[in-house]
Amino acid sequence: MCFPKVKLSLPRLAFDVMFGTWGKLVSVCWLGAFAAVTFARTGGTSSDFRFDRDTFAFANQTVFEYHEGYASLRKSSATKRDAYNRHCFVMSRTALQFKKFARFEPRNVPLDNASLAARIRDVTRRPTWMEPLPDDQRIVFPGYKDLKDMSKARRELVQLNIGHGWPSYFRISNARMMFQDGAGYQERTHARLNSALARGELFVAFLTTYPRFSINHSVLIYKLKSSEPNPGLDHYLVYDPNHPESPRDLIWSARDRAFSYQKDWDFVGGFVRVYQVYGKPLQ
Prior knowledge:
Strand content: 15-25%
Structural class: alpha+beta
Order of helices and strands: HHHEEHHEHEHHHHEEEEEE
Radius of gyration: 19 Å
Largest sheet: 6 strands, antiparallel, barrel
Shape: globular
Number of domains: 2
Distance between the termini: 27 Å
């Protein structure tokens, strides 16, 4: 139904206003229809985001050690060798920001450490929901052909300047996993995802299985890979900061009204809830 009757208490009304969900119940039908029509016309338009060019060369290390998707405590020696963990939100956000606000000039001389650090911070301080900058106004990174190339050559400097990971645990919008966990919200998220990709935009997502916490993770969804009207499955390509080697797969099932994420060494695979992040203030 497009126009459900909703009775909200004042606290719940404030919560919905904060996260921009009240009023979207009214628009879910036309939003979904818009996404469907747009994709029918474009055949699955996506941004020109390329995994081999627009992602980081290094990985976000998980806090726990995993075997077939099941977590166990990581050995202290392994943690000390590579302590770059808890940065999945930061890396997903920064990949989006570089795509919107930066450009590379490989034929010029690379910057010194101080100048490069300042330019990286200039990119990451820009609100993610702003429109992409025109080419002549973008922040220039000379000496490298793309983000993959620069993050491989200047790994430690890049890691030190894209932001801290710990604030991700205290994001206001994380509370949605406790209060907006129904299939209806996931259907609206699916419609927003398709609409964003149809406009050539990227979609940073928070994946969770709360209250189980078999996954509590952020990824960047950048392309609708395929859509199968029967049995109603949409397949998406995902940049996962834990896996710099290749894209991962996210699937929407219209029958189940739910998303699922592929099985890997750090996740058992299957059902996840998806929440958009960095699409607007306080998200």
